[in-house]
Write a structure and sequence with these properties.
By secondary structure, the protein is mainly beta. The chain has a single domain, classed as Distorted Sandwich (Beta-galactosidase, Chain A, domain 5). The protein has two helices and ten strands. The strands form four sheets. A three-stranded antiparallel beta sheet has the order 3-6-9, with no helix packed on it. The longest helix is centred in the first third of the chain and has 6 residues. The radius of gyration is 17 Å and the shape is globular. The protein starts with a strand and ends with a strand.
């Protein structure tokens, strides 16, 4: 229901943005490319998605918190995690990274813009949480164990 606001320095500010009726409202499914084309003042900073999404269901049992699906390939990825946040990043700064087609042939710059050719899902606790009291991040003490679990499950529809 919320995403972390990003500062001009690309760091979470400690404030939350309600995703309702915004480019960040992915709760009922959305074509990522369509979202990137929409306007939002946060995209003036990040170019597109590069935001920590607050997860509502934390745990690795039951329904996945995140589902990505490609109509092109038919591949679906489900993500379940014990972490409280998933940063969704859409390759906003990959302008000079070469792109390849499904046959692993390099695509020329004239054929395709390399930016936005992938999506990263980074499960974690709140970025910059150490500096923001609202995030209530627990510090890992010396010689203490930290256990988290993230499951990425792939299917073909």
């Amino acid at each position: 229901d919320e995403v972390c606001e990003i500062s001009e320095n690309m760091i979470p500010t400690g404030e939350f943005i309600d995703v309702t009726d915004t480019v960040f409202d992915l709760r009922n499914g959305k074509v990522i490319a369509d979202g990137i084309k929409e306007k939002h003042h946060q995209f003036d900073i990040t170019r597109a998605y590069d935001h920590p999404f607050v997860l509502n269901r934390v745990g690795v049992r039951g329904e996945p918190e995140i589902v990505l699906y490609s109509e092109y390939s038919g591949i679906e990825m489900e993500v379940c995690t014990t972490e409280r946040v998933a940063v969704i990043y859409t390759g906003n700064y990959l302008d000079d990274v070469p792109a390849f087609d499904s046959g692993y042939n390099k695509i020329s710059k004239k054929e395709k813009n390399d930016r936005y050719l992938g999506v990263a899902i980074e499960t974690q606790d709140f970025p910059n949480g150490i500096n923001e009291r609202k995030f209530k991040v627990k510090l890992l003490e010396k010689d203490k164990e930290y256990i988290q679990k993230t499951i990425f499950k792939f299917n073909v529809r």
